[in-house]
Design brief:
The complex is a heterotrimer of chains A (590), B (146) and C (326). With 590 residues, chain A is of the alpha/beta class. Chain A has 14 helices and 25 strands. Chain B is globular, with a radius of gyration of 15 Å. Chain B is an alpha/beta fold.
């Protein structure tokens, strides 16, 4: 191919030089000359179906009309996009399309621009939208490669349809045809019932290639194999085509990467409490009861509602209840305080006040505003008019006892300040869901030979003296995997863990605990019973000497081999038999 | 049999990573429990040599506790399994020596289980109190008359 | 007699007599011994009486070789007497060293042993229910028998012992080496066991047949398997106390295709031979499953008797708790 071969031509008497193989339409677009078209799409092969892009061309003596979308430029060609001949032809084509698809808006727009008011031709169906541009058929064939739809019949009867007019088995439901359709002649129906806002994950199909979240690091998109057309049909790969940096690679596979490292920082985070575990709260059963994270998503400007606080019916709530300590400070679920919920609930209260005119009720046990500026924020909320009610919510129900509770969510709570049980009807409830250890926390703990504390979070070596270290040398902790904590605390701890890890890595050497086992060559008979007992393969048999030998660098000092040594040749430094025997004797000295 | 005035003397061999830390937790959590158990720290329950158990009984222990990490949680991967195997065999042998199996107890107490440690201590003390003193003197009293 | 020959005494307590045999088994070497020493007391072979010993001056005997455990008051009196008269006392054989086979009596007491021996053994014919009594009156005269202790003791639990000759019975080499060392005055520190301080595996030809990781999933008794004469017994699932037993015996049992039973006792570093061996065996069981562990462990029918076959009185606990004997 002569990719670099340049061709010189004139469009509307202006010269331009383009690469060979360029179409007239593309050349014109480069010069910002607008040629109307309905069936052209830069990602699909040109098809010249609508014939709206027709232009007049002159090659030497020969003058004729050509569809600019699929006509390649030639050296010395002269193109006139708005010549009388071209415009007349275009007009005629538009009038024909207006007759064929009177309801197609893009046709009407072009007609309007061209000053056509009415089509002189007979209108068959005033509701018809399809202009038979073939974008849908082409995209299904070229991009999706499902070949689920095609043209049937001919002439006036021509239409787009799946084979035999029945739902096609080849259709993968990607809705790409609807996406490409310029006239909304193709629509799709969602047969599943879907909540509008709250079940955030169900808000509709995500894009198959997307950035996971705004704060993602690294901030790059990924291809979701579950929804990507390419992984269903082998086709599409449009994203690969449009990415100028050629950064998209559908062939890339998930890889397990093995790294040899000297230190590890565990920052595996937490999971949020599943409020469905508290049946009286009716989370997941009743509408408009949402978790803290769901609210956070909703109120996010890039969220599904663009930051608007909405109920499932799309309306703004008139009253909102914030329920604290969901899954926290509760012996039935987690005894500990999750530490972040009070403050995020206060933030929610503030955001709700900012966004809506709703009455805000905040149900709390204790207000734990322990951080810098936190108490001040709480006072600000008090001034903003949030109604704070002290007491643990016992139930959230939709069963009304009075007319004013009709159609509301009723929060039942013992108001411990007023010493009375209250029923507070609200439109929406936000549950301050607590933090829990991840499901695989124990598994991970075993992998790294560390332990978890009673609450299930990773246990630090010492709460004060070694708060980011663990029982395993070189393994450090950061963030909520060690216990619930907010972002400032997490950042602080992460810094500490990083510097601990760096200090260790920087030194390049590490100190062994002086508690390793040693085998007395004079006594060892080389029976080798100890060798199989060592989980670190620190013991080997010296055939020449006929004795077993401990490799000190490998020995971690558990002493299992020592107590198994039948001849007492193996001893653990600082935990010698003699020393322990003396301890036992010491215990009984009255 | 046992009476309430009898204060059992118990020896506990606790592994450094789980049970000793668990005992520490019981302490720092200010849990109260029977003060009868005297603790000897070892790095791993796998370090506990049956010789130590016998020695403890000989020196006057009325009961001996070995406590390590839960199975699968051993800081040294599998030391606690060695402790388990030894405990079962030694229990059989102790019974032959006239020492009730209940006097030699193996428990898994994790670093998080301060409360369990408390419970084990109380239970064990009570159990041994009921069993009464062991008085394992190896026949020495009898010989002095000869 | 230009130079006085060293005076030597031999005595036996609770033993089978095998150790006395071991002296005789020195064969022609015994002549060298008798040439070199003057035997002043040897009840098995020569007619000396207790009063002869009593008549000797204190510390006049150079070495007393005493075999057998201490079971009777008479034995206690005699060893105490010999200790007084001797410069050096050598515990000769497993029984004196650790209590030996008679020491297994410590699973019982006098009452139960007498009951068994004089009442319930199938061969007993004792319609009057006669049992030995320490004092009996016959024709107005009082006859006495030594007292039978409830507990068997090793020699060093009764008197101070200078050296130990291990083995049931001690092999020739060990005895000859000891005698020569004594004659030459080239003795190790007091309290030593006169045999190398390593376990039997050190000398065992089968040691190289051990697999890289020795693990036992089934314990068999020697009669239950056809024993491979080349392969480590433990690797065949048969309990061999070799790893927990001092070497020097010449592997007589191993060569006869029988596992070591531990008569030489433990090495110096070990406090309790049985417990130590128990620990090793339990450690190499090939399962982490509680039920499976119990299953294997329960196939060892008599762990105490097996692990303390020769050393119960010298073990940490010495005997079964008296109150527990029914």
């Amino acid at each position: 191919m002569n990719e670099n071969k340049k061709i010189k031509l004139f469009i509307n008497n202006k010269p331009i030089e383009v690469e060979e193989g360029t179409t007239i339409l593309q050349a014109a677009q480069k010069m910002d000359i607008e040629i109307p078209t309905l069936c052209y799409h830069s990602l699909l092969e040109p098809y010249a179906a609508c014939r709206v892009c027709v232009v007049e061309r002159k090659m030497g003596e020969k003058v004729d009309l050509a569809t600019s979308c699929n006509t390649e430029v030639k050296e010395g060609m002269e193109v006139f996009t708005d010549s009388e001949k071209a415009v007349n032809a275009r007009k005629m084509n538009i009038e024909l399309l207006m007759a064929r698809a009177p309801a197609a808006e893009p046709v009407q727009e072009i007609a309007q621009k061209m000053g056509i008011e009415k089509t002189p031709f007979e209108i068959k169906d005033p509701t018809e939208k399809c202009i038979l541009c073939g974008l849908c058929v082409r995209c299904c064939e070229e991009v999706v490669q499902a070949n689920a739809i095609g043209f049937v019949d001919r002439g006036l009867e021509r239409e787009v349809s799946p084979p035999f007019g029945e739902p096609s088995e080849d259709c993968i439901g990607c809705t790409a045809c609807a996406f490409f359709c310029p006239t909304e002649a193709i629509t799709y129906e969602d047969l599943h019932e879907r909540k509008i806002i709250h079940e955030e994950m169900d808000l509709g199909p995500s894009k198959a290639i997307r950035v996971p979240l705004r704060q993602a690091v690294p901030m790059v998109p990924f291809v979701d194999e579950e929804s990507c057309i390419h992984f269903k049909t082998g086709g599409c790969q449009l994203c690969e085509k449009v990415c100028e940096k050629e950064a998209v690679n559908h062939e890339a596979e998930e890889k397990e990467i093995e790294l040899d490292v000297g230190t590890v920082i565990l920052a595996s985070g937490f999971k949020t409490f599943d409020s469905k575990r508290i049946p009286p709260y009716n989370y997941g059963r009743l509408d408009n009861i949402i978790s803290g994270l769901e609210f956070e998503r909703m109120v996010n400007a890039s969220g599904p509602t663009g930051g608007e606080i909405r109920m499932t019916n799309g309306e703004k709530p008139q009253s909102v209840g914030l329920v604290h300590c969901v899954g926290s400070r509760d012996e039935n679920y987690n005894q500990y305080c999750s530490r972040v919920c009070c403050m995020y609930s206060l933030k929610f209260a503030h955001l709700i006040a900012e966004n809506t005119d709703a009455d805000i009720y905040d149900f709390y046990i204790d207000m734990r505003c322990f951080g810098k500026g936190y108490e001040e924020f709480y006072h600000r909320l008090l001034e903003e008019g949030t109604k704070f009610i002290r007491g643990r919510v016992s139930e959230i129900t939709d069963i009304p006892l009075s007319e004013k509770e009709e159609g509301k969510l009723i929060i039942r709570v013992e108001d411990t300040l007023m010493d009375t049980v209250r029923r507070v009807p609200v439109d929406m409830v936000v549950l301050a869901t607590g933090l829990e250890p991840n499901e695989d926390q124990t598994e991970l703990a075993r992998m790294f030979n560390i332990t978890t504390s009673q609450d299930g979070f990773f246990l630090e070596r010492h709460p004060k003296l070694a708060p980011v270290s663990t029982a395993s040398d070189g393994v450090f902790l950061a963030g909520a995997c060690q216990g619930p904590k907010d972002i400032p605390d997490t950042v602080g701890q992460a810094g500490a863990a990083a510097s601990e890890a760096l200090a260790l890595a920087d030194k390049g050497t590490f100190e062994l605990e002086p508690i390793t086992a040693e085998i007395d060559e004079e006594v060892c008979a080389g029976c080798q019973l100890c060798i199989g007992l060592c989980p670190y393969t620190a013991i080997s048999y010296d055939k020449e000497k006929g004795v077993s030998v401990v490799e000190e660098a490998l020995c971690k000092g558990c002493g299992t081999c020592v107590s198994a040594c039948p001849s007492g040749a193996s001893q653990q430094k600082h935990f010698r038999d003699q020393q322990i025997m003396a301890e036992i004797e010491g215990i009984f000295i009255e | 049999m046992g009476n309430q005035s009898f204060d059992p003397r118990l020896v506990g061999f606790l592994c450094n990573w789980c049970s000793y830390t668990g005992a520490d937790l019981a302490g720092t959590s200010r849990m109260t429990y029977a003060p009868n158990l005297r603790i000897i720290r070892v790095m791993c329950s796998g370090r506990v040599d049956p010789q130590f158990i016998l020695k403890a009984f000989k020196e006057g222990a009325d009961g001996v506790l070995v406590s390590g990490c839960h199975p699968g949680d051993c800081h040294y991967q599998e030391g606690n399994y060695k402790a388990l195997r030894r405990h079962r065999l030694l229990s059989n042998m102790l019974e032959q020596m006239g020492i009730e199996k209940e006097r030699f107890r193996l428990e898994w107490v994790s670093a998080a289980e301060g409360a369990k440690f408390q419970k084990v201590c109380n239970e064990f003390t009570e159990q041994i109190r009921k069993l009464g003193p062991l008085n394992m003197n190896g026949g020495k009293n009898e010989q002095t008359e000869a | 007699m230009s130079k006085q020959k060293p005076k030597v005494a031999f005595y036996w307590c609770s033993s089978c007599g095998g150790c006395e045999e071991s002296i005789v088994d020195l064969a022609e070497d015994i002549l060298k011994v008798t040439d070199a020493v003057d035997i002043v007391f040897w009840p098995v072979a020569l007619d000396f009486k207790r009063k002869d010993v009593e008549a000797m001056e204190d510390n006049s005997i150079d070495v007393s070789f005493i075999n057998g455990a201490v079971r009777l008051s008479e034995q206690q009196e005699m060893v105490e007497l010999l200790r007084k008269k001797s410069k050096m006392v050598v515990a000769h054989g497993s029984c004196a060293h650790m209590g030996g086979i008679p020491g297994l009596g410590n699973f019982w007491n006098k009452e139960t042993i007498f009951h068994r021996a004089y009442h319930t053994t199938p061969s007993t014919d004792n319609p009057d229910g006669t049992v030995p009594l320490e004092k009996t009156k016959v024709d107005g005269k009082e006859l006495s028998l030594p007292r039978f202790f409830d507990t068997v003791r090793s020699l060093d639990q009764v008197i101070d012992v200078d050296y130990y000759l291990p083995g049931c019975a001690p092999p020739r080499d060990i005895i000859m080496n000891a005698v020569q060392a004594i004659l030459k005055g080239e003795l190790p520190p007091k309290g030593s066991v006169l045999s190398p301080n390593k376990s039997l595996c050190d000398d065992c030809d089968r040691n190289d047949s051990k697999p890289e990781k020795l693990a036992i999933s089934e314990i068999k008794r020697p009669w239950e398997v056809e024993l491979d004469p080349e392969k480590c017994f433990l690797a065949q699932g048969v309990l061999c106390m070799g790893p927990a037993t001092r070497t020097g015996c010449g592997e007589r049992c191993i060569e006869a295709n029988m596992p070591c039973r531990g008569c030489f006792g433990p090495t110096d570093q070990v406090y309790d031979q049985g417990a130590k061996f128990l620990s090793s065996i339990a450690s190499i069981l090939d399962t982490d499953d509680e039920k499976e562990i119990e299953k294997i462990v329960n196939t060892i029918v008599d762990p105490a008797g097996t692990f303390y076959r020769f050393s119960l009185p010298a073990s940490t606990l010495r005997r079964k708790k008296m109150e527990a004997i029914k």
